[in-house]
């Protein structure tokens, strides 16, 4: 690790837990943002328990979907191992997050600190019990002081990348942070959910960043404290992400006079198809990254370092050829301004959702789309 390593005096997971997660020390852990639950998505909560949203603590928990919470939980536990330097939360405000003033990075960092404090206090209390120390007001004060030290350390290591509106922009802006602190951030890790990790690592590779990847569910599943949260994530009936769709299905079933047993079966089937659509969405992203540089090239305008910009183009022959054909120069002799000028002229191609269907021939479809785009 570089300069960013951290050594808490007392808190750590067991060595076996760290080994089970196959986690290696990193100077910066990049925690990718997840779409915040909008006002529309929380309408079901407001309808049945409006007071819940008026409580700031409850509102924070409800704003974050379970995938985001799992990322925060895993980040907190990994921070407490002492094997993480800085924690970079990446995620800005998007059109999907209606009614939310805070960025994904800001909300997730707040939840991260909440988990850090909770777990730190729990472990310190366990330490005192092992030493057979009696409870006292002085002991409580000492516990609070030690928890505050941990929180102060955690806050000092937080870095918020809160300008991004997509995963592609996450990596462009995070790459800038890494380039600006290259002596400090020699080894980096990416933390996200399992369904998202392959695409996240592919984007990192596309943006010339070699990072280790970790999925939050696997970590939470090995930790008894968060096993229930992981189970909720995998159970559509208990996952707030699908609550809105479930309510619509219930209303639809009631209007149609459907029996309770039949209603439950229909809801399970429909919610299961929602998970299938999420998987197709990830496959869609993988296909367009691999076969269609016109999809991600426009986001290179956010990359500041000329060396990284050239490295990205050098490792992708089709992207390089496209940019050089526009600029009229080879990338080695072009400065950043010239490259950005050429990249800005690339027309983004966004293919249809069928690109995520199993067995779809994305390579042939890319050639056809590219040809049609050139004709236009």
Descriptive report:
By secondary structure, the protein is α/β, with parallel strands linked by helices. It folds into three domains: 15-234, HUPs (Rossmann fold); 241-292 and 359-366, no CATH class; 293-350, no CATH class. Helix content is 58%, strand content 7%. It has helices spanning 15-20, 43-48, 50-54, 56-63, 66-80, 104-130, 137-156, 167-180, 197-206, 216-222, 227-234, 243-255, 260-291, 293-296, 306-314, 317-327, 336-343, 362-375, and strands spanning 26-32, 84-90, 158-161, 188-192, 212-215. It has a five-stranded parallel beta sheet, sandwiched between helices. Helix 5 (66-80) crosses helix 10 (216-222). It is globular and about 80 Å long. Residues 4-13 and 241-249 have low confidence and may be disordered.
Helix content: 55-70%
CATH hierarchy: architecture of the largest domain: 3-Layer(aba) Sandwich
Would you state the CATH class of the largest domain? Alpha Beta
SSE order, one letter for each helix or strand: HEHHHHEHHEHEHEHHHHHHHHH
Q: What is the fold named in CATH at topology level of the largest domain? A: Rossmann fold
Strand content: 5-15%
Which structural category do the helix and sheet elements fall into? alpha/beta
Tally of contiguous helical segments = 18
For the report, how would you describe the main beta sheet?
5 strands, parallel
Mean pLDDT: 80
């Amino acid at each position: 690790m570089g300069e960013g390593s951290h050594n808490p005096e007392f808190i750590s997971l067991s060595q076996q837990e760290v080994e089970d997660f196959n986690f290696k020390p990193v100077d910066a852990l990049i925690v990718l943002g997840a779409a915040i639950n909008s006002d529309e998505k929380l309408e079901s909560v407001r309808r049945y328990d409006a007071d819940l949203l008026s409580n700031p603590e409850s509102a924070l928990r409800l704003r974050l979907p379970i995938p985001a919470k799992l990322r925060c939980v895993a980040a907190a536990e990994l921070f407490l191992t002492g094997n993480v330097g800085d924690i970079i939360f990446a995620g800005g405000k998007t059109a999907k997050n209606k009614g939310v003033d805070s960025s994904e990075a800001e909300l997730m960092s707040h939840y991260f600190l909440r988990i850090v404090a909770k777990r730190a206090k729990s472990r310190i209390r366990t330490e005192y019990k092992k030493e057979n120390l009696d409870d006292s007001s002085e002991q409580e004060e000492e516990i609070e002081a030690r928890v505050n030290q941990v929180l102060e350390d955690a806050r000092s290591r937080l870095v918020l990348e809160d300008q991004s509106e997509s995963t592609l922009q996450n990596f462009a802006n995070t790459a800038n942070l890494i380039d600006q602190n290259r002596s400090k951030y020699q080894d980096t890790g990416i933390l996200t959910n399992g369904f998202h990790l392959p695409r996240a690592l592919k984007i990192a590779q596309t943006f010339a960043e070699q990072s280790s990847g970790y999925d939050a569910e696997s970590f939470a599943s090995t930790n008894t404290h968060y096993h229930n949260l992981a189970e909720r994530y995998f159970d559509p009936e208990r996952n707030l992400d699908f609550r809105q769709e479930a309510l619509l299905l219930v209303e639809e079933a009631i209007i149609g006079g459907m029996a309770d047993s039949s209603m439950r079966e229909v809801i399970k089937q429909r919610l299961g198809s929602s998970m299938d659509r999420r998987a197709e969405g990830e496959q869609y992203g993988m296909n367009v990254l691999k076969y269609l540089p016109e999809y991600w090239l426009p986001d290179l305008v956010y990359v500041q370092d000329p060396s990284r910009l050239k490295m990205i183009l050098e490792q992708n022959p089709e992207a390089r050829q496209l940019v050089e054909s526009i600029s009229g120069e080879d990338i080695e002799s072009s400065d950043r301004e010239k490259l950005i000028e050429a990249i800005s002229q690339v027309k983004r191609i966004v293919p249809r959702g069928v690109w995520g269907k199993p067995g779809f021939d994305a390579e042939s479809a890319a050639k056809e789309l590219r040809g049609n785009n050139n004709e236009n």
